[in-house]
Protein backbone atom coordinates (compact mmCIF):
# COMPACT_ATOMS: atom_id res chain seq x y z
CA UNK A 1 0.00 0.00 0.00
CA UNK A 2 3.02 2.31 -0.09
CA UNK A 3 1.86 3.77 -3.40
CA UNK A 4 -1.24 5.21 -1.71
CA UNK A 5 0.81 7.51 0.51
CA UNK A 6 2.97 8.42 -2.49
CA UNK A 7 -0.22 9.25 -4.36
CA UNK A 8 -1.42 11.62 -1.64
CA UNK A 9 2.06 13.18 -1.52
CA UNK A 10 1.92 13.92 -5.25
CA UNK A 11 -1.55 15.39 -5.03
CA UNK A 12 -0.68 17.58 -2.06
CA UNK A 13 2.38 18.91 -3.87
CA UNK A 14 0.27 19.69 -6.92
CA UNK A 15 -2.29 21.45 -4.73
CA UNK A 16 0.35 23.71 -3.24
CA UNK A 17 1.94 24.43 -6.63
CA UNK A 18 -1.45 25.72 -7.80
CA UNK A 19 -2.16 27.68 -4.64
CA UNK A 20 -4.88 25.20 -3.70
CA UNK A 21 -4.06 24.31 -0.12
CA UNK A 22 -7.40 24.63 1.61
CA UNK A 23 -7.58 28.41 1.94
CA UNK A 24 -10.90 30.19 1.66
CA UNK A 25 -11.96 30.01 -1.96
CA UNK A 26 -15.13 29.64 -3.97
CA UNK A 27 -13.26 27.11 -6.08
CA UNK A 28 -13.26 23.48 -5.00
CA UNK A 29 -10.09 22.33 -3.26
CA UNK A 30 -8.73 18.82 -3.55
CA UNK A 31 -6.56 19.44 -0.50
CA UNK A 32 -9.59 19.32 1.80
CA UNK A 33 -10.54 15.87 0.51
CA UNK A 34 -7.08 14.32 1.01
CA UNK A 35 -6.38 12.48 4.29
CA UNK A 36 -3.76 14.40 6.27
CA UNK A 37 -2.01 13.97 9.61
CA UNK A 38 -1.68 17.34 11.34
CA UNK A 39 0.71 17.70 14.28
CA UNK A 40 -0.73 19.98 16.96
CA UNK A 41 0.81 21.13 20.21
CA UNK A 42 1.59 24.11 22.35
CA UNK A 43 4.95 25.83 22.36
CA UNK A 44 7.55 23.83 24.27
CA UNK A 45 5.36 20.72 24.15
CA UNK A 46 8.14 18.77 22.43
CA UNK A 47 6.32 18.72 19.08
CA UNK A 48 9.45 19.38 17.01
CA UNK A 49 11.41 16.75 18.90
CA UNK A 50 8.70 14.17 18.18
CA UNK A 51 8.97 14.87 14.47
CA UNK A 52 12.73 14.70 14.51
CA UNK A 53 12.54 11.39 16.39
CA UNK A 54 10.22 9.94 13.74
CA UNK A 55 12.55 11.13 10.97
CA UNK A 56 15.74 10.31 12.84
CA UNK A 57 17.36 13.62 11.91
CA UNK A 58 17.91 17.10 13.33
CA UNK A 59 16.32 19.29 10.70
CA UNK A 60 13.81 21.66 12.32
CA UNK A 61 14.59 25.25 13.33
CA UNK A 62 14.94 25.76 17.07
CA UNK A 63 14.68 28.81 19.28
CA UNK A 64 12.47 30.67 21.69
CA UNK A 65 8.98 31.91 20.87
CA UNK A 66 7.14 30.84 17.73
CA UNK A 67 9.64 29.00 15.55
CA UNK A 68 7.23 27.24 13.16
CA UNK A 69 5.44 30.06 11.35
CA UNK A 70 4.29 28.22 8.24
CA UNK A 71 2.75 24.75 7.85
CA UNK A 72 5.51 22.27 7.04
CA UNK A 73 4.29 19.32 4.97
CA UNK A 74 6.80 16.60 5.80
CA UNK A 75 6.77 13.70 3.35
CA UNK A 76 8.83 10.70 4.41
CA UNK A 77 9.90 8.16 1.78
CA UNK A 78 11.51 4.88 2.78
CA UNK A 79 14.29 3.90 0.39
CA UNK A 80 16.40 0.74 0.52
CA UNK A 81 19.43 2.20 -1.19
CA UNK A 82 21.13 5.51 -1.60
CA UNK A 83 22.24 8.26 0.68
CA UNK A 84 19.79 10.01 2.99
CA UNK A 85 18.73 13.28 1.44
CA UNK A 86 16.01 15.92 1.44
CA UNK A 87 14.27 17.93 -1.27
CA UNK A 88 12.07 21.04 -1.14
CA UNK A 89 9.20 21.53 -3.58
CA UNK A 90 10.23 25.17 -4.09
CA UNK A 91 13.78 24.04 -5.02
CA UNK A 92 13.03 21.11 -7.35
CA UNK A 93 16.55 20.79 -8.75
CA UNK A 94 18.41 20.91 -5.44
CA UNK A 95 19.20 17.97 -3.18
CA UNK A 96 20.18 18.44 0.48
CA UNK A 97 22.37 15.89 2.21
CA UNK A 98 23.32 18.21 5.06
CA UNK A 99 20.31 18.44 7.37
CA UNK A 100 21.69 21.56 9.03
CA UNK A 101 21.24 23.18 5.60
CA UNK A 102 17.67 21.84 5.58
CA UNK A 103 17.02 23.60 8.89
CA UNK A 104 18.42 26.86 7.48
CA UNK A 105 16.37 26.59 4.29
CA UNK A 106 13.14 26.11 6.28
CA UNK A 107 13.91 29.31 8.21
CA UNK A 108 14.90 31.19 5.04
CA UNK A 109 11.83 30.08 3.10
CA UNK A 110 9.63 31.10 6.02
CA UNK A 111 11.19 34.57 5.95
CA UNK A 112 10.68 34.82 2.20
CA UNK A 113 6.94 34.45 2.67
CA UNK A 114 6.44 36.36 5.93
CA UNK A 115 9.38 38.76 5.79
CA UNK A 116 11.71 38.95 8.74
CA UNK A 117 8.78 39.65 11.02
CA UNK A 118 7.46 37.03 13.39
CA UNK A 119 4.09 36.78 11.64
CA UNK A 120 2.63 33.53 10.29
CA UNK A 121 1.50 32.36 6.84
CA UNK A 122 -0.89 29.64 5.70
CA UNK A 123 1.22 28.81 2.60
CA UNK A 124 2.85 25.41 3.24
CA UNK A 125 6.50 24.47 2.81
CA UNK A 126 7.00 21.04 1.24
CA UNK A 127 9.88 18.94 2.46
CA UNK A 128 10.52 15.37 1.25
CA UNK A 129 13.01 13.20 3.11
CA UNK A 130 14.35 9.97 1.63
CA UNK A 131 15.94 7.53 4.07
CA UNK A 132 16.13 3.81 4.92
CA UNK A 133 15.40 4.76 8.54
CA UNK A 134 11.87 6.18 8.03
CA UNK A 135 8.45 4.78 7.26
CA UNK A 136 6.32 6.06 4.39
CA UNK A 137 4.38 8.82 6.05
CA UNK A 138 3.19 12.39 5.54
CA UNK A 139 2.77 14.84 8.42
CA UNK A 140 1.86 18.51 8.55
CA UNK A 141 3.71 20.38 11.26
CA UNK A 142 1.62 23.38 12.34
CA UNK A 143 2.71 26.46 14.32
CA UNK A 144 2.70 25.87 18.06
CA UNK A 145 -0.32 27.15 19.95
CA UNK A 146 0.43 30.00 22.32
CA UNK A 147 -1.39 32.20 24.79
CA UNK A 148 0.75 35.34 24.55
CA UNK A 149 2.45 37.23 21.72
CA UNK A 150 6.20 37.75 21.85
CA UNK A 151 8.11 40.89 20.90
CA UNK A 152 7.69 41.80 17.25
CA UNK A 153 4.29 40.10 16.94
CA UNK A 154 0.86 41.65 16.88
CA UNK A 155 -1.61 40.90 19.65
CA UNK A 156 -3.72 39.03 17.11
CA UNK A 157 -1.04 36.37 16.57
CA UNK A 158 -2.57 34.10 19.22
CA UNK A 159 -5.90 34.01 17.40
CA UNK A 160 -4.24 33.78 13.97
CA UNK A 161 -2.33 30.65 14.97
CA UNK A 162 -5.45 29.10 16.47
CA UNK A 163 -7.43 29.84 13.30
CA UNK A 164 -4.68 28.37 11.12
CA UNK A 165 -4.56 25.18 13.22
CA UNK A 166 -8.36 24.92 13.16
CA UNK A 167 -8.44 25.33 9.37
CA UNK A 168 -6.55 22.02 9.18
CA UNK A 169 -7.88 19.92 12.03
CA UNK A 170 -11.59 20.78 11.72
CA UNK A 171 -11.74 19.03 8.34
CA UNK A 172 -13.14 15.49 8.67
CA UNK A 173 -10.30 14.01 6.58
CA UNK A 174 -7.64 15.30 8.97
CA UNK A 175 -6.02 12.92 11.47
CA UNK A 176 -4.94 14.88 14.54
CA UNK A 177 -1.66 14.13 16.29
CA UNK A 178 -2.13 15.95 19.60
CA UNK A 179 1.22 16.40 21.37
CA UNK A 180 1.05 17.13 25.12
CA UNK A 181 3.84 17.26 27.75
CA UNK A 182 3.47 14.78 30.62
CA UNK A 183 4.96 17.21 33.17
CA UNK A 184 1.93 19.52 32.81
CA UNK A 185 -1.71 19.03 33.70
CA UNK A 186 -3.40 17.33 30.73
CA UNK A 187 -6.53 19.41 31.38
CA UNK A 188 -4.60 22.54 30.36
CA UNK A 189 -3.01 21.01 27.25
CA UNK A 190 -3.50 23.30 24.26
CA UNK A 191 -3.47 20.34 21.88
CA UNK A 192 -6.09 18.35 23.80
CA UNK A 193 -8.36 21.36 24.27
CA UNK A 194 -8.48 22.32 20.59
CA UNK A 195 -8.68 18.67 19.46
CA UNK A 196 -11.63 18.06 21.77
CA UNK A 197 -13.48 21.01 20.21
CA UNK A 198 -13.20 19.72 16.64
CA UNK A 199 -13.22 15.99 17.44
CA UNK A 200 -15.24 15.63 20.66
CA UNK A 201 -15.49 11.81 20.39
CA UNK A 202 -11.78 11.38 19.75
CA UNK A 203 -12.46 9.38 16.60
CA UNK A 204 -9.57 10.84 14.60
CA UNK A 205 -7.18 12.00 17.34
CA UNK A 206 -3.95 10.28 18.32
CA UNK A 207 -2.56 11.37 21.68
CA UNK A 208 1.22 11.68 22.06
CA UNK A 209 2.68 12.20 25.51
CA UNK A 210 6.14 13.79 25.68
CA UNK A 211 8.55 14.58 28.54
CA UNK A 212 7.55 11.50 30.51
CA UNK A 213 11.12 11.33 31.81
CA UNK A 214 10.78 14.86 33.21
CA UNK A 215 7.79 14.14 35.45
CA UNK A 216 8.12 14.77 39.18
CA UNK A 217 9.65 11.92 41.11
CA UNK A 218 7.03 9.54 42.41
CA UNK A 219 4.59 10.29 39.61
CA UNK A 220 3.99 8.51 36.32
CA UNK A 221 1.85 8.72 33.21
CA UNK A 222 0.34 5.23 33.28
CA UNK A 223 -3.26 6.45 33.72
CA UNK A 224 -2.93 8.67 30.69
CA UNK A 225 -1.17 6.07 28.53
CA UNK A 226 -3.75 3.42 29.41
CA UNK A 227 -6.56 5.82 28.52
CA UNK A 228 -8.08 6.21 31.98
CA UNK A 229 -7.39 9.94 32.40
CA UNK A 230 -8.52 10.94 28.92
CA UNK A 231 -9.94 8.35 26.56
CA UNK A 232 -9.38 8.43 22.84
CA UNK A 233 -10.40 5.86 20.21
CA UNK A 234 -6.70 5.17 19.61
CA UNK A 235 -4.16 4.25 22.34
CA UNK A 236 -1.95 6.99 23.74
CA UNK A 237 1.70 6.79 22.77
CA UNK A 238 4.49 7.93 25.04
CA UNK A 239 7.80 9.19 23.70
CA UNK A 240 11.07 10.20 25.33
CA UNK A 241 12.85 12.87 23.32
CA UNK A 242 16.44 13.96 23.56
CA UNK A 243 17.12 16.47 26.31
CA UNK A 244 18.67 19.84 25.59
CA UNK A 245 21.93 18.45 26.97
CA UNK A 246 21.73 15.57 24.45
CA UNK A 247 21.13 18.05 21.65
CA UNK A 248 24.06 20.16 22.76
CA UNK A 249 26.26 17.03 22.83
CA UNK A 250 25.05 16.09 19.33
CA UNK A 251 23.67 12.76 20.47
CA UNK A 252 22.49 11.11 17.26
CA UNK A 253 18.94 9.87 16.73
CA UNK A 254 19.90 6.21 16.50
CA UNK A 255 21.35 6.35 19.99
CA UNK A 256 18.39 8.39 21.20
CA UNK A 257 15.91 5.83 19.89
CA UNK A 258 17.85 3.03 21.60
CA UNK A 259 17.76 4.91 24.93
CA UNK A 260 14.02 5.55 24.44
CA UNK A 261 13.36 1.81 24.01
CA UNK A 262 15.43 1.00 27.07
CA UNK A 263 13.59 3.64 29.11
CA UNK A 264 10.17 2.08 28.56
CA UNK A 265 11.45 -1.51 28.78
CA UNK A 266 13.42 -1.07 32.01
CA UNK A 267 11.00 1.04 34.04
CA UNK A 268 8.50 -1.22 35.81
CA UNK A 269 5.69 1.31 35.44
CA UNK A 270 5.91 1.24 31.65
CA UNK A 271 7.41 -2.17 30.82
CA UNK A 272 3.97 -3.70 30.08
CA UNK A 273 3.37 -0.88 27.59
CA UNK A 274 6.87 -0.87 26.05
CA UNK A 275 5.81 -2.63 22.82
CA UNK A 276 3.56 0.29 21.88
CA UNK A 277 5.66 3.18 23.13
CA UNK A 278 8.35 5.26 21.46
CA UNK A 279 8.82 7.31 18.33
CA UNK A 280 9.56 4.27 16.13
CA UNK A 281 6.23 2.68 17.05
CA UNK A 282 4.51 6.03 16.57
CA UNK A 283 5.83 6.35 13.02
CA UNK A 284 4.81 2.81 12.05
CA UNK A 285 1.37 3.19 13.63
CA UNK A 286 0.68 6.46 11.86
CA UNK A 287 1.93 5.09 8.52
CA UNK A 288 -0.32 2.04 8.76
CA UNK A 289 -3.32 4.11 9.85
CA UNK A 290 -2.78 6.69 7.09
CA UNK A 291 -2.63 3.94 4.47
CA UNK A 292 -5.86 2.47 5.81
CA UNK A 293 -7.64 5.84 5.77
CA UNK A 294 -6.43 6.65 2.26
CA UNK A 295 -7.63 3.27 1.00
CA UNK A 296 -11.08 3.82 2.50
CA UNK A 297 -11.29 7.30 0.96
CA UNK A 298 -10.36 6.28 -2.61
CA UNK A 299 -13.96 5.71 -3.86
CA UNK A 300 -15.07 9.03 -2.38
CA UNK A 301 -12.07 10.79 -3.91
CA UNK A 302 -12.83 9.32 -7.33
CA UNK A 303 -16.44 10.47 -7.09
CA UNK A 304 -15.44 13.95 -5.88
CA UNK A 305 -12.84 14.34 -8.64
CA UNK A 306 -15.21 13.23 -11.43
CA UNK A 307 -17.96 15.54 -10.18
CA UNK A 308 -15.59 18.48 -9.77
CA UNK A 309 -14.05 18.01 -13.23
CA UNK A 310 -17.54 18.27 -14.71
CA UNK A 311 -18.30 21.40 -12.64
CA UNK A 312 -15.00 23.05 -13.58
CA UNK A 313 -15.45 22.27 -17.28
CA UNK A 314 -18.94 23.78 -17.15
CA UNK A 315 -17.63 26.90 -15.43
CA UNK A 316 -14.74 27.16 -17.89
CA UNK A 317 -17.16 26.96 -20.83
CA UNK A 318 -19.31 29.65 -19.22
CA UNK A 319 -16.31 31.96 -18.88
CA UNK A 320 -15.40 31.48 -22.53
CA UNK A 321 -12.09 30.98 -24.29
CA UNK A 322 -8.96 32.89 -23.31
CA UNK A 323 -7.94 35.84 -25.49
CA UNK A 324 -5.73 34.99 -28.46
CA UNK A 325 -2.22 36.44 -28.55
CA UNK A 326 -1.71 37.18 -32.26
CA UNK A 327 -3.71 39.63 -34.38
CA UNK A 328 -5.14 36.89 -36.60
CA UNK A 329 -6.36 34.96 -33.57
CA UNK A 330 -7.93 38.07 -32.09
CA UNK A 331 -9.69 38.92 -35.36
CA UNK A 332 -11.00 35.37 -35.66
CA UNK A 333 -12.18 35.45 -32.05
CA UNK A 334 -14.05 38.75 -32.55
CA UNK A 335 -15.64 37.46 -35.76
CA UNK A 336 -16.80 34.29 -34.00
CA UNK A 337 -18.34 36.28 -31.15
CA UNK A 338 -20.09 38.58 -33.65
CA UNK A 339 -21.41 35.59 -35.58
CA UNK A 340 -22.78 34.14 -32.35
CA UNK A 341 -24.59 37.43 -31.71
CA UNK A 342 -25.83 37.56 -35.31
CA UNK A 343 -27.19 34.01 -35.06
CA UNK A 344 -29.09 34.84 -31.87
CA UNK A 345 -30.52 37.96 -33.55
CA UNK A 346 -31.73 35.87 -36.51
CA UNK A 347 -33.27 33.31 -34.15
CA UNK A 348 -35.34 36.08 -32.59
CA UNK A 349 -36.63 37.16 -36.00
CA UNK A 350 -37.27 33.59 -37.20
CA UNK A 351 -39.31 32.63 -34.14
CA UNK A 352 -36.77 30.27 -32.56
CA UNK A 353 -36.49 32.84 -29.77
CA UNK A 354 -39.27 35.29 -28.79
CA UNK A 355 -39.51 38.82 -30.21
CA UNK A 356 -39.96 38.45 -33.97
CA UNK A 357 -43.73 38.16 -33.60
CA UNK A 358 -43.82 41.84 -32.63
CA UNK A 359 -42.96 42.79 -36.24
CA UNK A 360 -45.99 40.89 -37.50
CA UNK A 361 -48.13 42.57 -34.83
CA UNK A 362 -47.15 45.95 -36.35
CA UNK A 363 -48.35 44.80 -39.79
CA UNK A 364 -51.47 43.03 -38.58
CA UNK A 365 -52.64 45.47 -35.90
CA UNK A 366 -50.84 48.79 -35.82
CA UNK A 367 -50.88 49.56 -39.57
CA UNK A 368 -54.56 48.61 -40.19
CA UNK A 369 -55.62 50.54 -37.09
CA UNK A 370 -53.66 53.60 -38.18
CA UNK A 371 -55.12 53.48 -41.69
CA UNK A 372 -58.60 53.06 -40.26
CA UNK A 373 -58.12 56.12 -38.08
CA UNK A 374 -57.30 58.32 -41.09
CA UNK A 375 -59.89 61.09 -41.51
CA UNK A 376 -60.56 62.16 -45.12
CA UNK A 377 -63.31 64.63 -44.17
CA UNK A 378 -61.12 67.67 -44.69
CA UNK A 379 -59.90 66.60 -48.13
CA UNK A 380 -63.38 65.49 -49.29
CA UNK A 381 -65.52 68.20 -47.78
CA UNK A 382 -67.96 69.93 -50.15
CA UNK A 383 -65.92 73.09 -50.07
CA UNK A 384 -62.61 71.34 -50.84
CA UNK A 385 -64.12 69.19 -53.60
CA UNK A 386 -65.75 72.26 -55.22
CA UNK A 387 -62.51 74.26 -54.85
CA UNK A 388 -60.20 71.63 -56.36
CA UNK A 389 -62.54 70.76 -59.23
CA UNK A 390 -63.15 74.40 -60.05
CA UNK A 391 -59.41 75.14 -59.96
CA UNK A 392 -58.68 72.10 -62.08
CA UNK A 393 -61.22 73.21 -64.74
CA UNK A 394 -59.43 76.52 -65.24
CA UNK A 395 -61.13 78.91 -67.67
CA UNK A 396 -63.13 76.08 -69.32
CA UNK A 397 -65.38 73.74 -67.28
CA UNK A 398 -65.00 70.01 -67.86
CA UNK A 399 -67.37 68.47 -70.35
CA UNK A 400 -67.93 64.90 -69.16
CA UNK A 401 -65.90 64.10 -65.99
CA UNK A 402 -63.62 66.32 -63.91
CA UNK A 403 -60.48 64.20 -64.54
CA UNK A 404 -57.99 66.76 -63.27
CA UNK A 405 -60.19 67.41 -60.28
CA UNK A 406 -60.26 63.72 -59.48
CA UNK A 407 -56.45 63.55 -59.71
CA UNK A 408 -55.94 66.50 -57.41
CA UNK A 409 -58.47 65.22 -54.88
CA UNK A 410 -56.92 61.75 -54.89
CA UNK A 411 -53.36 63.10 -54.59
CA UNK A 412 -54.25 65.39 -51.68
CA UNK A 413 -56.02 62.53 -49.90
CA UNK A 414 -53.34 59.88 -50.43
CA UNK A 415 -50.70 62.17 -48.91
CA UNK A 416 -52.26 61.48 -45.49
CA UNK A 417 -51.27 57.79 -45.82
CA UNK A 418 -47.57 58.73 -45.60
CA UNK A 419 -47.78 59.28 -41.85
CA UNK A 420 -48.95 55.68 -41.03
CA UNK A 421 -46.36 54.36 -43.51
CA UNK A 422 -43.56 56.20 -41.71
CA UNK A 423 -44.93 55.07 -38.34
CA UNK A 424 -44.71 51.42 -39.44
CA UNK A 425 -41.09 51.88 -40.48
CA UNK A 426 -40.26 53.52 -37.15
CA UNK A 427 -42.11 50.85 -35.14
CA UNK A 428 -40.25 48.00 -36.87
CA UNK A 429 -36.97 49.91 -36.41
CA UNK A 430 -37.66 50.17 -32.68
CA UNK A 431 -38.42 46.43 -32.47
CA UNK A 432 -35.23 45.54 -34.31
CA UNK A 433 -33.19 47.73 -31.96
CA UNK A 434 -34.78 46.03 -28.96
CA UNK A 435 -33.92 42.64 -30.46
CA UNK A 436 -30.33 43.78 -30.96
CA UNK A 437 -30.12 44.78 -27.28
CA UNK A 438 -31.70 41.50 -26.21
CA UNK A 439 -29.39 39.46 -28.48
CA UNK A 440 -26.33 41.24 -27.05
CA UNK A 441 -27.45 40.36 -23.52
CA UNK A 442 -27.97 36.74 -24.57
CA UNK A 443 -24.56 36.46 -26.24
CA UNK A 444 -22.49 35.10 -23.37
CA UNK A 445 -19.16 35.90 -25.02
CA UNK A 446 -19.98 39.63 -25.26
CA UNK A 447 -20.37 39.83 -21.49
CA UNK A 448 -16.63 39.23 -21.21
CA UNK A 449 -15.63 42.17 -23.39
CA UNK A 450 -17.36 45.50 -22.57
CA UNK A 451 -15.64 47.45 -25.37
CA UNK A 452 -16.57 44.89 -28.04
CA UNK A 453 -20.11 44.86 -26.70
CA UNK A 454 -20.37 48.64 -27.11
CA UNK A 455 -18.88 48.49 -30.62
CA UNK A 456 -21.23 45.73 -31.76
CA UNK A 457 -24.23 47.60 -30.34
CA UNK A 458 -23.15 50.79 -32.06
CA UNK A 459 -22.45 49.07 -35.40
CA UNK A 460 -25.77 47.20 -35.35
CA UNK A 461 -27.75 50.35 -34.52
CA UNK A 462 -25.98 52.32 -37.25
CA UNK A 463 -26.90 49.61 -39.75
CA UNK A 464 -30.51 49.67 -38.59
CA UNK A 465 -30.57 53.46 -38.93
CA UNK A 466 -29.39 53.21 -42.53
CA UNK A 467 -31.98 50.53 -43.22
CA UNK A 468 -34.70 52.68 -41.70
CA UNK A 469 -33.82 55.56 -44.03
CA UNK A 470 -33.98 53.26 -47.05
CA UNK A 471 -37.17 51.60 -45.83
CA UNK A 472 -38.89 54.93 -45.23
CA UNK A 473 -37.90 56.10 -48.70
CA UNK A 474 -39.31 52.91 -50.22
CA UNK A 475 -42.56 53.06 -48.23
CA UNK A 476 -43.20 56.69 -49.15
CA UNK A 477 -42.35 55.87 -52.73
CA UNK A 478 -45.17 53.32 -52.73
CA UNK A 479 -47.59 56.04 -51.70
CA UNK A 480 -46.21 58.37 -54.35
CA UNK A 481 -46.60 55.64 -56.97
CA UNK A 482 -50.28 55.32 -56.17
CA UNK A 483 -50.66 59.10 -56.47
CA UNK A 484 -48.74 59.38 -59.72
CA UNK A 485 -50.70 56.77 -61.67
CA UNK A 486 -54.40 56.12 -61.10
CA UNK A 487 -56.01 52.75 -61.80
CA UNK A 488 -57.98 53.34 -65.02
CA UNK A 489 -60.23 50.28 -64.70
CA UNK A 490 -61.74 51.73 -61.54
CA UNK A 491 -63.00 54.79 -63.42
CA UNK A 492 -64.06 52.87 -66.52
CA UNK A 493 -66.62 51.09 -64.42
CA UNK A 494 -68.17 54.34 -63.27
CA UNK A 495 -70.56 54.93 -66.28
CA UNK A 496 -71.90 51.40 -65.90
CA UNK A 497 -72.41 51.96 -62.19
CA UNK A 498 -74.17 55.25 -62.99
CA UNK A 499 -76.48 53.59 -65.47
CA UNK A 500 -77.42 51.08 -62.80
CA UNK A 501 -78.54 53.60 -60.27
CA UNK A 502 -77.38 57.11 -61.14
CA UNK A 503 -78.74 59.91 -63.32
CA UNK A 504 -76.30 61.00 -66.05
CA UNK A 505 -78.71 63.44 -67.70
CA UNK A 506 -77.71 66.47 -65.69
CA UNK A 507 -76.69 69.47 -67.73
CA UNK A 508 -73.04 70.27 -67.81
CA UNK A 509 -73.92 73.56 -66.27
CA UNK A 510 -75.42 72.07 -63.09
CA UNK A 511 -72.60 69.65 -62.37
CA UNK A 512 -71.30 71.82 -59.54
CA UNK A 513 -74.46 71.30 -57.51
CA UNK A 514 -74.20 69.60 -54.15
CA UNK A 515 -75.41 66.20 -55.31
CA UNK A 516 -72.82 66.11 -58.05
CA UNK A 517 -70.02 67.21 -55.73
CA UNK A 518 -71.10 64.61 -53.17
CA UNK A 519 -70.93 61.95 -55.88
CA UNK A 520 -67.41 63.04 -56.84
CA UNK A 521 -66.33 62.90 -53.20
CA UNK A 522 -67.81 59.41 -52.84
CA UNK A 523 -66.00 58.20 -55.95
CA UNK A 524 -62.68 59.60 -54.68
CA UNK A 525 -63.23 58.06 -51.23
CA UNK A 526 -63.99 54.70 -52.80
CA UNK A 527 -60.82 54.89 -54.86
CA UNK A 528 -58.74 55.94 -51.83
CA UNK A 529 -60.10 52.96 -49.86
CA UNK A 530 -59.04 50.69 -52.68
CA UNK A 531 -55.55 52.19 -52.60
CA UNK A 532 -55.41 51.90 -48.81
CA UNK A 533 -56.24 48.20 -49.14
CA UNK A 534 -53.39 47.80 -51.60
CA UNK A 535 -50.88 49.72 -49.43
CA UNK A 536 -51.87 47.75 -46.37
CA UNK A 537 -50.21 44.74 -48.02
CA UNK A 538 -47.45 46.42 -50.01
CA UNK A 539 -46.03 48.57 -47.17
CA UNK A 540 -45.27 45.50 -44.95
CA UNK A 541 -43.59 43.82 -47.91
CA UNK A 542 -41.42 46.88 -48.46
CA UNK A 543 -40.56 47.13 -44.74
CA UNK A 544 -39.63 43.45 -44.52
CA UNK A 545 -37.51 43.71 -47.65
CA UNK A 546 -35.69 46.89 -46.63
CA UNK A 547 -35.36 46.34 -42.88
CA UNK A 548 -36.03 42.79 -41.60
CA UNK A 549 -34.51 40.90 -44.53
CA UNK A 550 -31.60 43.30 -44.79
CA UNK A 551 -30.93 43.14 -41.03
CA UNK A 552 -30.77 39.34 -41.24
CA UNK A 553 -28.50 39.52 -44.26
CA UNK A 554 -26.02 42.30 -43.52
CA UNK A 555 -26.44 43.72 -40.01
CA UNK A 556 -22.69 43.73 -39.25
CA UNK A 557 -21.22 43.70 -42.78
CA UNK A 558 -19.79 47.20 -42.53
CA UNK A 559 -18.40 46.44 -39.04
CA UNK A 560 -16.66 43.33 -40.40
CA UNK A 561 -15.08 45.41 -43.16
CA UNK A 562 -13.77 47.92 -40.60
CA UNK A 563 -12.43 45.09 -38.42
CA UNK A 564 -10.32 43.76 -41.27
CA UNK A 565 -8.44 47.07 -41.41
CA UNK A 566 -7.60 47.16 -37.69
CA UNK A 567 -4.18 46.25 -36.28
CA UNK A 568 -3.51 43.81 -33.46
CA UNK A 569 -3.33 46.54 -30.81
CA UNK A 570 -6.69 47.99 -31.89
CA UNK A 571 -8.25 44.53 -31.87
CA UNK A 572 -6.81 43.94 -28.41
CA UNK A 573 -8.63 47.02 -27.11
CA UNK A 574 -11.92 45.46 -28.16
CA UNK A 575 -11.09 42.33 -26.16
CA UNK A 576 -10.76 44.18 -22.85
CA UNK A 577 -11.85 41.35 -20.60
CA UNK A 578 -12.37 42.05 -16.91
CA UNK A 579 -9.10 41.04 -15.17
CA UNK A 580 -11.17 39.24 -12.52
CA UNK A 581 -12.63 36.94 -15.18
CA UNK A 582 -9.19 36.39 -16.75
CA UNK A 583 -7.75 35.43 -13.38
CA UNK A 584 -10.71 33.19 -12.57
CA UNK A 585 -10.36 31.38 -15.89
CA UNK A 586 -6.66 30.81 -15.22
CA UNK A 587 -7.38 29.54 -11.71
CA UNK A 588 -10.09 27.18 -12.92
CA UNK A 589 -7.88 25.99 -15.77
CA UNK A 590 -5.08 25.15 -13.31
CA UNK A 591 -7.47 23.36 -10.98
CA UNK A 592 -8.96 21.43 -13.86
CA UNK A 593 -5.44 20.35 -14.80
CA UNK A 594 -4.86 19.32 -11.17
CA UNK A 595 -8.07 17.26 -10.97
CA UNK A 596 -7.45 15.53 -14.30
CA UNK A 597 -3.92 14.61 -13.17
CA UNK A 598 -5.33 13.40 -9.84
CA UNK A 599 -7.93 11.30 -11.65
CA UNK A 600 -5.22 9.72 -13.78
CA UNK A 601 -2.95 9.05 -10.77
CA UNK A 602 -5.74 7.50 -8.69
CA UNK A 603 -6.97 5.33 -11.57
CA UNK A 604 -3.42 4.10 -12.12
CA UNK A 605 -3.02 3.14 -8.44
CA UNK A 606 -6.44 1.46 -8.31
CA UNK A 607 -5.73 -0.59 -11.42
CA UNK A 608 -2.31 -1.57 -10.06
CA UNK A 609 -3.86 -2.78 -6.82
TrEMBL record:
Query: What is the protein name for this chain?
Result: Dynamin central domain, GTPase effector domain, Dynamin superfamily
Q: Which residues form the Dynamin-type G domain?
A: 31-299
- Which family does the UniProt entry place this protein in? Belongs to the TRAFAC class dynamin-like GTPase superfamily. Dynamin/Fzo/YdjA family.
One record GO biological process: clathrin-dependent endocytosis
Decide whether keyword GTP-binding is in the record.
Answer: yes
**Gene Ontology molecular functions:** GTP binding; GTPase activity; microtubule binding
Its cellular-component GO annotations read: cytoplasm; membrane; microtubule; phragmoplast
Q: Which domain of life is it from?
A: Eukaryota
Q: Which InterPro entries match?
A: Dynamin, Dynamin_GTPase, Dynamin_GTPase_CS, Dynamin_N, Dynamin_stalk, G_DYNAMIN_dom, GED, GED_dom
Q: Does the keyword Glycoprotein apply?
A: no
Amino acid sequence: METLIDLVNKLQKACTALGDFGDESSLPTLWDALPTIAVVGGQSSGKSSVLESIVGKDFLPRGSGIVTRRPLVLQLHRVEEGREHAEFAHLPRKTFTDFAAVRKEIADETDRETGRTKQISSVPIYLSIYSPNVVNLTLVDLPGLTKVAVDGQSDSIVKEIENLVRSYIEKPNCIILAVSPANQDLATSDAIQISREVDPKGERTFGVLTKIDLMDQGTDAVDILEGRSYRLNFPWIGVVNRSQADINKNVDMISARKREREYFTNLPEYSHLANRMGSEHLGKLLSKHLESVIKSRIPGLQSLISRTILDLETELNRLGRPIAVDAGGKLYMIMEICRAFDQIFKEHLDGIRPGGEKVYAVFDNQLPAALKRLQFDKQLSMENVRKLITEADGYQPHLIAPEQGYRRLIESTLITIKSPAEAVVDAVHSILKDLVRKSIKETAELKQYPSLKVEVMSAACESLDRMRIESKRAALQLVDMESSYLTVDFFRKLPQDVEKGGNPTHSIFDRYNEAYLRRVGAIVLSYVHMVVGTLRHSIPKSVVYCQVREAKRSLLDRFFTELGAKEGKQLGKLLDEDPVITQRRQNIGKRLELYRAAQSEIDMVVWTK
